[in-house]
UniProtKB/TrEMBL annotation, chain A:
It holds the Pfam family DHHC. InterPro entries: Palmitoyltrfase_DHHC. It catalyses: L-cysteinyl-[protein] + hexadecanoyl-CoA = S-hexadecanoyl-L-cysteinyl-[protein] + CoA. Residues 106-226 form the Palmitoyltransferase DHHC domain. This is Palmitoyltransferase. Its main location: membrane. It is found in: Cell membrane. The chain crosses the membrane at residues 21-44, 50-71, 152-176, 188-214. The lineage of its organism: Eukaryota, Metazoa, Chordata, Craniata, Vertebrata. Residues 300-312, 397-432 have a biased composition (Polar residues). It comes from Acanthochromis polyacanthus (spiny chromis). Residues 561-580 have a biased composition (Gly residues).
UniProtKB/TrEMBL annotation, chain B:
May be involved in protein transport from Golgi to cell surface. The ZDHHC9-GOLGA7 complex is a palmitoyltransferase specific for HRAS and NRAS. Its main location: Golgi. This is Golgin subfamily A member 7. Belongs to the ERF4 family. It comes from Acanthochromis polyacanthus. It is found in: Golgi apparatus membrane.
Length: 580, 141
């Protein structure tokens, strides 16, 4: 029997979501109907009947695009099956880097959807889905705008602007010809419609202009607003003309959800054909028994060497998930290995990705209502505290700092494309969210977009930004500290956990210089070994590691002053960060 | 004729799954990595596998191509207020059908006899090609 691809679980019904789209529909349909009933009859008599026909065509085009933008699946990715996430979450990195046209781009792990987000994909917090080529979540159509429906959204904006101009223009013609009879209901209605049209013209035209520029430059709203390409190169552009034709003329992208799955009619039964083994392979086979496991475990250990257990949980990390799902085959991290051989490893990126069933433990990054920004790098403190986190987190973060020219506040307020997971940290909600999903940017609550780094920046520019980052990070630590106090367990319980975690870390990183657990600031020796990681401000350095390809970590290690104190004060027990 | 136990063998058990990831070096065009995964070394020829993935990549490139087909489709859609989508299949969908057929055929001819199964990547949102490796019980006898 054919099976449908599973869709996301049903979400609670929220009537407030439908207010903007209902208002938009009412204004559009209502005003246009009034225009047709009160203004057009005279226009068709006085000039020609082409006018109402033309207006009708434009209006229908606008409405069609509006409907498509509203009802079309934007390109939602189905949740990954359990089998795909076969890596031990404990060792799996939070980010994977991939090189796109020579530029390093980071792919972040989505804890909701259980896969590494493809480039340009982002998780919408409103829809609770990862969307391909995510542009933004539009409240006026109550839908995400992504790969599949961007074209309709763009055409909707163009046609709506045209329609508003037409309605206003023809209304003006009517009014100018009826200057002496402005007290008639027809004239009054025409003037009212003109007012509505005039009112909406400014924001709509502004947004249209903004999107024309975006299409020409091959960027999404998300990328533009989070400043990903500022000072850098956009790897996704193919030139102005190609970008435009890609948006307007490419074939309709397929949907991933709600597809009929073909059941495999293929019978698979042994005996199976085998390719002939070469001499070398035969030899290796004989020597292989047991070695493969060791090889694998050292690889994972070395990845842990580099792994900054930056934000450890209050509870000790869970034991590695047993890989017994498919016993009997040599385990090779295909996901990791394929990327490791193709892209330089990013040492500081190995953060631990908490396992799925520990709902609370931290995917704090998604805590940002706006993006999944890693700079928070603070894992949640565990189940018992989730309630406080959850409540703190539900507040919507106003995006005051992210106004682009020509856009209205309202259209960007819901740019929130990242869901804070239920258990994720509210800590993020204390910060002003304004970063892109894949990028490290530091935004202190007071200053907008200060000192962020783009993954597309060259290493040099990133280095220059370090100074800014340090400043940004200092302010960062204070809300963080405040949060810690509110949420972290009493300091007395901190140290034992800290010790335990330190122990744990040390077990894994034998090659590291011995670390003094009590010192909050790492010794210069230790520092030179690997990139710093723990406190969120430090996370800024992650952005830099992203932007360079395989440069040695030691050069980029800002050590924000705030970080050390926080570490000393809150302790790891607060679930804030790993000790150095 | 009596049924022997041999005839009533159930489908082989799944031993492992390998995921062929997307190759993003050229942007967001749909391409999969042709790198041969080590788990398949003992099950199938490298050449054969790479040939399959290359063919898939070509088919996807064809689907996403900005050609006359897609231009005409776009214009027609605009002119009919997108109602044409109710009756006509888009170019991409046509290619997806072709791809599904190709995968089915590859599975029948090449992969199933070797105890492997390819899953159509569209079921995974075009993110991975899932290769299921079946347990070869004949080896354990």
């Amino acid at each position: 029997l054919p099976v449908l691809t599973a869709s996301a679980p049903p979400r609670p019904f929220r009537p407030s979501r439908y207010v903007p789209v209902s208002a938009a529909t009412t204004f559009l349909v209502g005003s246009t109907t009034l225009f047709f009933c009160f203004t057009c009859p005279w226009l068709s008599e006085y000039f020609s009947s082409v006018i109402p026909i033309y207006n009708a065509v434009i209006f229908l085009f606008t409405l069609a695009n509006f409907c498509m933008a509203t009802f079309m699946d934007p390109g939602v990715f189905p949740r990954a099956e359990e089998d795909e996430d076969k890596e031990d979450d404990f060792r799996a990195p939070l980010y994977k880097t991939v090189e796109i046209k020579g530029i390093q781009v980071r792919m972040k792990w989505c804890s909701t959807c259980r896969f590494y987000r493809p480039p340009r994909c982002s998780h919408c917090s409103v829809c609770d889905n990862c969307v391909e080529d995510f542009d933004h979540h539009c409240p006026w159509v109550n839908n995400c705008i992504g790969r599949r429906n961007y074209r309709y959204f763009f055409l909707f904006l163009l046609s709506l602007t045209t329609h508003i101009i037409d309605v206003f223009g023809f209304g003006l013609v009517y009014v100018l010809h009826h200057r002496q009879q402005l007290d008639t209901p027809h004239a009054a209605v025409t003037m009212a419609v003109m007012c509505v049209a005039g009112l909406f013209f400014v924001p709509v035209a502004g947004l249209t202009g903004f999107h024309i520029v975006l299409v020409a430059r091959g960027r999404t709203t998300n990328e533009q607003v989070t400043g990903k390409f500022r000072g850098g190169v956009n790897p996704f552009t193919n030139g102005c003309l190609r970008n435009i034709s890609h948006v307007l003329c490419s074939s309709q992208a397929p949907r991933y959800m709600g597809r009929w799955r073909s059941q495999q009619a293929v019978e698979v039964q042994p005996p199976f054909l085998r390719p002939p083994l070469t001499e070398a392979q035969l030899e290796a086979k004989i020597l292989d028994n047991g070695i493969q496991n060791d090889r694998h475990s050292t690889r994972s250990k070395s990845s842990l060497d580099q792994m900054e257990s930056q934000s450890a949980d209050a509870e000790p990390p869970p034991p590695p998930k047993p890989e017994l799902r498919y016993p009997g085959l040599p385990r090779a991290d295909t996901e990791e290995s394929s990327l490791l051989t193709e892209a330089p490893p990013t040492p500081s990126m190995y953060k631990y990705r908490p396992p799925f069933n520990r709902g609370m433990s931290g995917y704090s990054l998604t805590g940002r209502s706006y993006t999944s920004y890693p700079s928070s790098l603070v894992l949640s403190t565990g189940g018992s505290r989730s309630s406080s986190l959850r409540s703190a987190h539900t507040a919507h973060n106003p995006l005051t700092t992210l106004q682009s020219e020509g856009t209205t506040d309202t259209s960007y307020k819901s740019l929130a494309n990242q869901t804070p997971r239920n258990g994720s940290l509210s800590y993020d909600s204390l910060l002003t969210p304004s970063e892109s999903p894949e990028f490290e940017s530091v935004v202190s609550p007071s200053s907008p977009l200060q000192g962020y780094t783009s993954p597309f920046l060259s290493a040099q520019i990133a280095q220059q930004r370090e100074g800014q980052l340090l400043q940004g990070s200092a302010t960062f630590s204070s809300p963080h500290r405040a949060y810690l106090r509110a949420v972290s367990p009493p300091p007395s319980s901190g140290p034992p956990e800290t010790q335990h975690l330190l122990q744990h870390n040390q077990d894994f990183s034998s090659s590291r210089a011995p670390r003094n657990p009590s010192s909050s600031s790492s010794s210069p020796g230790a520092r030179s070994l690997e990139p710093p990681v723990s406190p969120p401000p430090r996370g800024l350095s992650l952005g830099k590691s992203l932007s360079y390809t395989g440069e040695a970590g030691p050069q980029h290690k800002p050590r924000p002053a705030g970080g050390g104190t926080v570490l000393g004060g809150g302790g790891v027990g607060g679930g804030q960060q790993a000790p150095q | 004729m009596t049924h022997s136990l041999q005839d009533m063998r159930p489908q082989a058990a799944v031993a492992a799954k390998v995921f062929i990831q997307r190759d993003y070096t050229n942007g967001t065009v749909c391409q999969f990595q042709t790198k041969f995964p080590s788990e398949l070394e003992t099950r199938i020829d490298k050449q054969q596998f790479e040939e399959t993935v290359r063919m898939l990549n070509n088919l996807y490139a064809e689907a996403e191509k900005l050609g006359s087909q897609s231009y005409i489709e776009g214009c027609l859609a605009c002119l009919t207020a997108y109602t044409v989508f109710l009756c006509m299949e888009t170019h991409y969908e046509k290619m997806l059908k072709k791809i599904a057929k190709y995968i089915q055929e590859q599975n029948d001819k090449i992969y199933a006899p070797r105890g492997l199964l390819l899953t159509d990547p569209i079921e995974r949102g075009l993110r991975v090609i899932e290769v299921t490796i079946f347990e070869d019980r004949s080896l354990t006898r």
